[in-house]
Amino acid sequence: MNIEQKQKTIKAGEIAKKVKIFAKEIIKKGVLLLEIAEKIEDKIYELGGKPAFPINLSMDEIAAHYTPSHNDETKAHGLLKIDIGVHIDGYIADTAFSMDLENSEENQKLILSSKQALENVENKISSNSTLSEIGRIIETTINEKGFNPIINLSGHSIQQYNLHAGISVPNIDNKSNLALNSGIFAIEPFATAGSGKVKDGKPSGIYQVQILRNPRSELAREILNYITEEYNTLPFCSRWLVKKF
Fold first, then answer.
1. What is the largest CA-CA distance in the chain?
2. Phi/psi at 224 (nearest 5 deg)?
3. Which residues pair with 186 in a beta bridge?
4. Residue 56: strand pairing partners
5. pTM of the model
6. Residues 139-146: what's their mean pLDDT?
7. Could you read off the pLDDT of 201-233 as tens digits, one per residue?
8. How far is residue 108's CA from residue 125's CA, in Å, rounded to a whole number?
9. Domains parsed from the chain with CATH numbers
10. Neighbours of 235 (CB within 10 A)
């Protein structure tokens, strides 16, 4: 990365940090997820960035990737995971945190186990770290707290306009000797009181352009052109398109 690219990445990170503080202030039990998502996304724009993906607000047994629909009436409760992405010209900062909205001891212990796993990785990670070493730290930390890591969710490498750029960073010791080397990586420890494996749920309403086509419908062409110009290859959601069109 050249100096300009690094500066854009750092700026995205600074915005994401401020947005996390803002999100913690506005999230309360009983508030509509739709209201929370739109306020957080509006804050990203206000601070000079753009969402790198729709705000994820996943509750309780939903581990990740839930974003409210345009008419969603779900209210915040339980254990809420907030996943925030910010980009400047495609240079991405990806961050997340969890909130216990029930004053639940188990929820708080779950949050602490993931937080501790992340901190332990941050204290030891280097460009020479292997995927196996990182996964082992996460797995051991979460196990010691009495929980299981989720084995089929992982962190990832990040490149310009490419949120999941090819390298998956595991939450378990996967025996891989692949070293991180240089680059930007999201480390994403997931802890659960369950078996440690997620399954697909209902469609999330989050999409990404994979292959460009030339649809017959004039409206469809207009929407597709907007998607490629506004989001490039980054994820977007049906809620954004309903709002625009």
1. 57
2. -65, -40
3. 156
4. 83
5. 0.95
6. 98
7. 988 899 999 988 889 999 999 999 999 999 999
8. 26
9. 1-102 (3.90.230.10), 104-202 (3.90.230.10)
10. 20
